[in-house]
Amino acid sequence: MKFFLASLLTLLTFNAFAGTINTINYKGMVHISEPVALRMLDFEKGDDVDEEAIDKAVKMYFDQGYFDDVWVEIEKDILTFNFKEKPIISTVELKGWKESDDDIKDTVVQIKKGTLYNEKKLEDAKKRIIDAINKDGKIDSVVEIEKEYLENGSIKVTFIVNEGQKIIIDRLDYSGVIGLESGMFDEVIANKEHEFMGWFWGRNDGKMSLADLEYDPLRIRDFYMQYGYLDAKVNEPFVRVNFDHYTAAMSYQVEEGEVYTVSSVSVEQVQTVIDNQKIEEIISLKNGEAFNIKTFREDAQNIKTLIADLSYAFVQVVPDLKKNKEKKTVDVVFKITPGDKVKIRDVIVSGNNRTLDRIIRRELYLGPGDMYSLTDLKDSRNSLGRLGFFDGNTIEEKRVDNKTMDLVVKVKEAPTGNIQVGGGYGSYGGILVSVGINDRNVFGSGINVGVQAEKSMMTQNASFNISNPRLNDSDFSGNFSIFQSTYKYNDYTVNTEGVSVGAGHKFSRHVSGFLGYSYSRNSYDLGNIINLSYYNAYYFENYSKSSVTVSSSFDNTDDYYLPREGLTLSQSFEKSGLGADSNFVKSRTLFGKYYGLEDYVGFDAIARYKARLNSVVDTGYIPIAEKFYMGGLGSVRGYESYSLSPTVTQEDGIVRRVGGKQTFSNNLELSLPLVPKAKMRLLTFLDWGYIGDNSLNEISRGGYGMGLEWFSPVGPIELMFSNPLGQQPGDRVAHFEFTMGQRF
Q1: DSSP sequence for 271-299
Q2: pLDDT > 70: what percent of the chain?
Q3: 428-466+532-740 shares the fold of 343-413
Q4: Does this model's pTM top 0.90?
Q5: Residue 14: which H helix or E strand, with range?
Q6: What is the helix (H) or strand (E) element at residue 3, kind and residue range?
Q7: What CATH architecture applies to the domain 2-85?
Q8: Among 55, 235, 301, 470, whose Cα sits 20 to 30 Å from the Cα of 485?
């Protein structure tokens, strides 16, 4: 090393120096201050110093890692330390792999601009890059380090990456599999055999994941234990790689053993805090059934939740299995150590640079002085998510002592004001575009204000609305709106102007109710193409509507825009006829179920089912504009909005849509991550709906397709590419639609 050579030359120059040093100087030193450097020495000015002490000082300075070289000069009683500082890395680049990925530079390369040049750290970064590529199943990758000295004395470091080849598993064998089907293991393992058309979604592409090779045997064994095979053994796979074609053959050796049945399930509490019978009621494992490790874990978690809801925040549930190998039975024991009851000392909110503290705190079901509850904690997280104000939230449990804890609520603000854009393209209506502006969290107050001015080939709308979901932070809500609109329903146009007002109440965490009143005046523009002699003109008379709406809703989802768990259910009834022309009763039912699939497929997939059921009953007069129409976003994609409806045929043969009294639609969706960093997702969907005047099955249509969901900086955007199912002559189809500002 350089400092040994420098020390040797220095000692030869000293000629076995020993004497008093009265002055100590430093030259070329930047990263260590002179006072600090002096304190690091074993001697001081005025001390007698020999060559051994000087040599030790040189080595000590060099070991700090800041210098390429350290040497000394002595002139009489003056000792001068000379330093050659290591250059600073001013630029770090990747070529050939993840070139523009800043996250990779932070997490894998881990060399920051402004750090000192260090050969070992560069080699460590090189190894991390190769390891990261290997995790993607690529081997024979090569990384070279290119260094360029710049004019300012700094260094530009470039990692030149030549990615290796992906290994494709073209054969996967299992030996010893008898009780189960080997194909079932594809549900849990990462390394699967390549299937025909493996590039297609839902098929196995066979790409090897080296990082998962050591975990796949554990996954297979765990899968066996879900079927009662407690003695199952799965050896690490034997892998044979053909480096000429970069293919691999893999084989597993499996010893299944026999199926164990549950002989007994018992509960042992170190300290009795609840009746054992109540615990046993939530246990799913039953005597005489095959043991299931998955159910076993779920039971343990359910017990933990039950005890933690009694304020035992630090409860421990230790499940124990007592196997009888001769009888092939297992006794299941849940040992519970509850600890002490825990009280919340303080709730700390952070990250809300816009939303007021009280808006967040009113959604929390735990506060200072409350006793801990695990269910309350989870419901608080979900309640914050349903606001739609935040890009994410966490509630950390900070233990103070055995009996108290603090809750630290961390939120990340999301844009709540957006420009709402909707539109599409249809064979009849052409390009449709609508624009509106609203903010669901004005000035961080939780108040929703919207001003909408829409204009398209089908609609013209101007409205103002304001609503407060928590009046004075209470469980009451209120809203007010005025509106003027023009809607073209393919065969006629309805002009509406009106006002509405309403109030609601939150009855529980997930259930709320609403009571509202609206008044509107409505007129028809029939154009020149409708001949009223073929219709009942009574349905096209201008009318006024005065109605009261009562509704209730249930919502326990975990997020407003992109829920991954929970369901929504709402029911509303509207009674029209209070001193106005129209007289009817409308019923609207909405249902949505959301289910995250990450635990099953290993990535953030979401399954959704949505349904809508609408009906109207004539109690005097139903204007044609108050009847139901189907098609487009929200009902059946693949058909133009409002285009699916019962019809009448004029004597001249022209078919006109007159609306239905009943409609029901289903939407089945699968949302998949596409570009997670950009919050962009891929959607596949299948829709089917029914509409009729006297019965639901008069008209039945469906649609399918794909879409793009993007939570953009200006709000959520959906782009839908659709195809119709069950198309009949005269149907108006729409292959593309988009919308912005709505929840997915």
Answers
A1: S--S-HHHHHHT----TTSBP-HHHHHHH
A2: 90
A3: no
A4: no
A5: helix 2-14
A6: helix 2-14
A7: Roll (3.10)
A8: 470
